[in-house]
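Can't paste images in this forum, so I'm doing it all in text. The chain is below; anyone willing to post the predicted structure tokens underneath?
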Amino acid sequence: MIFPHLDAETRRALEGFLRLIDRTFPLPRRRAGSLPRDIAELSRLFTGARGERTVTYLGKPAFLSAYLRYFLPWNLYRLCRLLPGLVLPLEDGDAVTDLGSGPLSLALALWISRPDLRGLRLEFRCIDHTATVMRAGKKLFEALAGGDCPWILRLERNSLGGRAGKAPIVWKGPSAEEKQPAGKDARRQEKPARLVTAVNVFTELGQNIPAADGGGLKRFAEKSFKTLTSYLADTGYLLAVEPGNPQGGAFIAGLRGALIESGGSVLAPCPHAQPCPFPGGKAPRRERRTEGRGKGKWCHFAFSTEEAPAALRTLSSRAGLPKERAALSFLFAGLGGQEGPEPEALTGGLRLRVISDAFPLPAAGGAPAARDARFGRYCCSEQGMALLTGKRSALEKAESGALFKAACTGARDPKTGAVIAEI
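Text version of the structure:
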């Protein structure tokens, strides 16, 4: 299943990681008191005041400290809920290219949540335009994994899709003392990556494209898909993770469309390869009625933060940013016609991926539903948007992203056009 609950080892590791940050980057006493304010200000720059944020904002000590102590741990929590549920096809000697690496969130989350990968010789090619934040992440990774880690981290200060060799390449691992080629030769001599990842990258790059601008987002997603695949082997895999907001969901839907047009395979979370019923933006009225595409609905998954470190939740409250739920949108895909392993394979009936929370359905005649009445949840299916109905107790127990098999009733929801299915 996607988004499994954290196991005890991962929870301990995330709690210990907060202490590791304090040991690795001690916070001066004069700055400790302003940390909540710095977090709140950085959050403002991430949301309503994006235009005020400079390209190298994480090069500022106050913002870097706020990012490492708040945004990085929350990103790790989201990734640690996602990564254990994906069948990652990595083998000894494979390379992973991580675009927009920041403080190496992807590598850190993999080490924390996927102990099955720790013994492999993996090369991580981390690319970001801010060297300061990558070096901070490398320092944290070394403190976390220890000196005998078989993973190699290569840091490259560059823009996405840019020409290699803008800055010296920094190595961590067995090849630390070797001379490595720079410039175009570096890209020619390295083998293509088995896995290319991008976490919280593209919606930031396309921040000026409104979620309702379907055409602009589609063109941006197609361009981004070409960037991702330029680093990838012909039979490689890609993982894109974006915030679970309307813009993030709309971008992921566009990226998925570009993937399918290229002949690639959607491995997760989609239970089908048909047009996305949750593309975000504003669908034409005709499509909303006949194809089950509701206005503004986007694909995203949300889960409780109860398993996140208590100290992180406390810091969030102090910064005025209490977080009861974490959300994300993502796409895991293969380029070589791969068929993803289906640990959740279901036969017969309509396969449904739960997207929304449970909500009460109106009783006959439009009267409010009684407490023990029927509930519904919107789901993704090959027939478009589906409304899964059933008893409240059954629907509320289902996790976000759960996969169901259900029988269609033959009716459609008059509000959204969604096909109605019975749990």
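Residues 163-185, 286-291, 340-345 have pLDDT under 50 and may be disordered. The two ends are 18 Å apart (CA to CA).
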